[in-house]
Amino acid sequence: MSSSSEYMVGPTIGQGSFAHVVYAVHKPSGRTVAIKVVEQLSIRKHPWLLQTIMTEKKILQSSDSNSNEKKVSRPAWVVSLWAAFYDAHHLYMVMELCSGGDLEGLLSQAGMLQEEEEEEEEDSDEKLDGHRSLSSVQRERWIQHSVPFYASQIVNALQYLHSKIRILHCDLKPSNCLLQADTGQLRLCDFGSAIEMDRQSTTKTTAAASDSSSDSSNRNRTWIPRGTTEYSCPEIIRATSPLALNEGVDYWSVGCLLYAMIHAGKSPFCHDSEALTVQAMKEHCQGRIGFHHQQLKPTDKHTRNFQEWLGLSIGLLREDPEDRIQFWEENISRHDLLQWDPAAVDRGDVILPRPHWKDEVENAVLKDGNEGWTAFVQL
């Protein structure tokens, strides 16, 4: 069984509500890894947290075993779990290190965040904080080459989850799309909210058991932890009792992701508060304008393929999950926009990721895991 003593521990490279991720080196092999660290205190305060951890561990192990059984190369769609262990203070999950960070970081790197575009408007001739917003030409190249490159991987990753390992992710968002720095290959992570599609009919929850109709109407229903509100579908946001879920849950999130990739990194319902986000979603479902539209330059709205990407995004943001599934089957799986040019990577047209923590990791003094749990404390 693995233990903390097998690792040299570096800086924090990721942060969540109940966990942080550290860069580390496996001493025996020299392999660089990412270790997800969850405090035992958080698990005691929030008992449901342990269930999400065990769900993620089971899914990641299942993905690996499915690939091994078929004796084929493991698809590069799900992050690999290499070890898991615990001590009195923390629970640890050792995963492959995705050297390019995540899609959220890439959007920032590409200059697609609204704050950087506003700075560019104020001073188009100077670099600000070492960053430049994309020019009109660069934005067109981003939408023409980079968006298809990454969007096609998200689509393929979902098709793998749904058809091969029969999983609904239920928390798709930019920070859960990890990337490799040298190739831009995408891997999905954070399966704590995921659901095994074939087990919904046998899932029993406290909420369902306490419902007088749980033996009938709730037989195919289950609870899931709510994901990030601005990427969650209406049926999850509105849920007050166990519900049956299908692929439409993830298709809604893809609609939000596509929108974010062409709208300065912002999701369509992004607002300053969760209440406003939910209100915007309600207005959208009622047929009123609810999107948090960015102040884009006029040229952006006429950028090549922009309107087509926007159409695909909005097409997936339908209130009825069955309508989303139908739209996906008719418009997404084989759409021309998702047929990216492999040579575009070699030409440098595709923006490859460079994580914000790269310099910090390269200059870090690693702590010896022999020190025990203190080596993993977030500073």
Helix-strand layout with pairing:
Layout: E1 7-15, E2 19-26, E3 32-39, H1 40-45, H2 48-69, E4 81-86, E5 90-96, H3 103-109, H4 114-122, H5 136-163, E6 167-168, E7 177-179, E8 186-188, E9 195-196, H6 206-210, H7 234-238, H8 248-262, H9 274-285, H10 306-316, H11 321-332, H12 343-347, H13 358-362, E10 367-368
Antiparallel strand pairs: 1-2, 1-10, 2-3, 3-5, 4-5, 6-9, 7-8
Return the CATH architecture of the largest domain.
Orthogonal Bundle
Characterize the biggest β-sheet: 6 strands, antiparallel
Shape: globular
So what's the CATH class of the largest domain?
Mainly Alpha
What is the succession of H and E elements?
Answer: EEEHHEEHHHEEEEHHHHHHHHE
Strand order of the largest sheet: 4-5-3-2-1-10
Please tell me the total number of domains.
Answer: 2
Q: For the terminal residues, how far apart are their CA atoms? A: 27 Å
Strands, count = 10
Tally of helical segments: 13
Strand content: 5-15%
CATH superfamily of the largest domain: Transferase(Phosphotransferase) domain 1
User: Percentage of helical residues?
Assistant: 25-40%
**Helix-and-strand structural type:** alpha+beta
Using the CA coordinates, give the radius of gyration: 21 Å
Domain Protein kinase: 7-338
Binding site for ATP: 45
EC number: 2.7.11.1
Region (Disordered): 111-132, 200-221
Write a brief structural summary.
Belongs to the protein kinase superfamily. By secondary structure, this protein is of the alpha+beta class. It contains 13 helices and 10 strands.
